[in-house]
Amino acid sequence: MTASTPILPGTPAVQRHDSHWASAGYVPPWLPPIAVAGALLILVPLISMATRVEWANFGALVTSPSSLAALALSLRTSLAATALCILLGVPMAMVLARVDFPLKSLARTLVLVPLVLPPVVGGLALLYAFGRRGLLGGVMNLLGIDIAFSTTAVVLAQTFVALPFMVLTLESALRSRGARYEGVAATLGARRGYAFRHVTLPLMWPALVAGTVLCFARALGEFGATLTFAGSLEGVTRTVPLEIYLQREVDPDAAVALSLLLIVIALVIVGLAYRRPGSRRAQ
Amino acid sequence: MVLNAKHAIALVVLALGPLTACTAASDAPQNQTVTVFAAASLTDTFTELGKDFEAANPGIKVVFSFAGSADLATQIVEGAPADVFASANEAQMDVVSAESLTAAAPMTFATNILTIIVPSDNPANISSFEDLASADVATVVCAPQVPCGAATVTLEDKFGFDIPAVSEENSVTDVLGKVSSGQSDAGVVYVTDVPRSTDITAIPIEGAEAAINTYPIASLRSSQAADAASAFVDYVTGAEGAEVLTAAGFGTP
């Protein structure tokens, strides 16, 4: 995780515009032990889970047809949801950070709602909005759109729960950074569009990567909203978390094996995203 | 003096009264808490039974943890402090008894059968189980891995067709949600689930008895309140339990 990218507003933002990690600041000596305790809180359950996996059957468990169908579906839907998060989240973050409009703080709070809402309730809300008898159901019916129990519904649910991560990450980065660099670019004669493409976007890059990774991870792990809104059918709406939940009813070993695979996939993708930190940043 | 002596005797009697009462009651389990892990579908009936049981057995407190039977079985196997386990199917009770965690042989205390549910206005005009064979009907069922889904498969086999379900849910609650919201045209749930929603209508399945789901209950070996736990099991499997369960739509063995 890029330390200079506060994820939540209110997190003290350390002002760094490039990667001077070598000159990282002072850390009080009592702090690392607490950090280790925090890391253990995450690591110990993961390691405990790994000890329960029947490694002899691991391959067979995760390559069963139902597991593979779930994996393929999860990757497709999570990538689509992440793309939607970028498409919708970047403009939302820019507007929140740089445009003044009435009730802005209310808007900023509303963006947080999907984070606070229990995902199952989020799924119900989506059902009440886009369901056959939902608020928009009539209009969608007229247009011949029926997303009930479809893969589209899965993507919609994942986007709903993941979007706040993109907006919050980007917006706090933009706000803490201000518009000084664009100002400098303007004094050097850059047009606004040019400055946006060549100054603003590159400055946003680390936060954009962080937001994208968070969105993808959240979409990959999405469970409650999908179950409530989209249903659960192999190859159509049953993503890996839903498959894990179902497998656990009959075969907890398969559920644990599949969970581990999900974690590995997430780690690989996060690792790839952060492979060369700073390489695409502003010169 | 006489008056004083009488007073003294009266005081002694008054003071000893509660003591003797305590001595008499200490034969029965007292000031014990029975923790009951019960399947989510038993929430209403067991809450009621727990109150009745507490009223009939002063000094015993019954607390419940309601969740899916598979969740509860996992928790018990991992050492959760439960005194009684009431499962919605035999498979999950078997998980617990396979680890030798039950104190006595599990007893069947209730049965349940399936029914069709449709949104109140019945948009697809469903009138029988055979109507669910049509691909034009958006039917939601439980997945075969969970008890209600296994029962549904049994019925499909008996009727000789597969329901082209648009979704195979993890629990009856999820099926109920999809039907009561009108998202699907029909669903298959237990008869005891019908009162849980006012937005649905039940359409009985002729021949539903072909797939009977049984609910076993057992007290657990690790219990710190073994007497109270077996007393609660007796209560549920006895006449009082049968009365409450029957009123809720369950069958009793």
Structure commentary:
- The complex is a heterodimer of chains A (283) and B (253).
- Chain A has 283 residues and is mainly α.
- Chain A has a single domain, classed as Orthogonal Bundle (MetI-like fold), CATH 1.10.3720.
- Chain A has 12 helices and no strands.
- Chain B folds into 3 domains: 1-25; 31-111 and 215-247, 3-Layer(aba) Sandwich (D-Maltodextrin-Binding Protein, domain 2), CATH 3.40.190.10; 114-210, 3-Layer(aba) Sandwich (D-Maltodextrin-Binding Protein, domain 2), CATH 3.40.190.10.
- Chain B has helices at residues 2-25, 43-56, 69-77, 90-98, 147-159, 172-180, 226-237, 239-247, and strands at 32-39, 60-67, 84-86, 107-112, 114-119, 139-142, 167-169, 186-190, 200-204, 213-219.
- In chain B, helix 2 links the parallel strand 1 and strand 2.
- In chain B, helix 3 packs parallel to helix 4.
- The termini of chain B are far apart.
Number of helices of chain A: 12
The count of strands of chain B amounts to 10
- Cα-based radius of gyration of chain A, to the nearest Å: 21 Å
Mean pLDDT of chain B: 88
Number of structural domains of chain B: 3
Q: Rough shape of chain B? A: elongated
Total domain count of chain A: 1
- Beta fraction of chain B: 15-25%
The profile of the biggest β sheet of chain B is: 5 strands, mixed
> Main sheet of chain A?
none
Name the helicity range of chain A: 55-70%
Strand order in the sheet with the most strands of chain B: 2-1-3-10-4
Q: Helix fraction of chain B?
A: 25-40%
| Alpha-beta classification of chain B | alpha/beta
Count every beta strand of chain A, where a strand is a DSSP E run of 2 or more residues: 0
